[in-house]
Amino acid sequence: MSELGELVSHQNTIYEATAPVALYVAGILSHPAAMTLRPYRSAPIRATLLNWLVSTAYDASDEIVGRTERYFPGFLTPDTTVTAFRDLRPMLYRAVAPFLQDSHEDVREAAVIAALILAEHPALAEHRDHLAAHAYLVLDTSADAPNRRVARKALEAWGHSVPGPEPLPEEPWDRGPHSDGRGDLEPPF
Known about the structure:
- The longest helix is centred in the N-terminal third of the chain and has 15 residues, at about 45-60.
- The chain is mostly helical.
- The protein is about 50% helix and about 0% strand.
- It starts with a helix and ends in a 32-residue tail after the last helix.
- It contains nine helices and no strands.
- The protein is globular and about 40 Å long.
């Protein structure tokens, strides 16, 4: 799994191998072995594969590509590796969609986040209202701040009402066992 990230999407880059590997990952999502728990973790391999698709799809998302285009005009010309990957989004969505209501929370949330990012593709616009319900569920139940941001941005982009702003994260010095106002060097007793 670590080699998948290091060799195919190292430093948030879409390589020539990224698109074929993404198709392979999408193809094995439904294999029964994908529900094997990863060693030392409580999440199935399927959740990890979906999270890899999330990460890779985000690297080729409208937001990231738009930001890159400002500094490197022509970044998204028809013959680039990023364009080839972005063209796969409808196919990848079809592989991810069966897991939107998976019984395992990690798999379900990873599938929802992947679907939200992939649904930026114009051919997937018809799925956005259905995905909005899943995005609201992520906002209501997820403790993962990046996933909540993806859900919030998708809802905003699709014209859905979004609950009030996210609470500001605590400052580092406010966290931890002494967050009741004592200094870090004071004992807790």
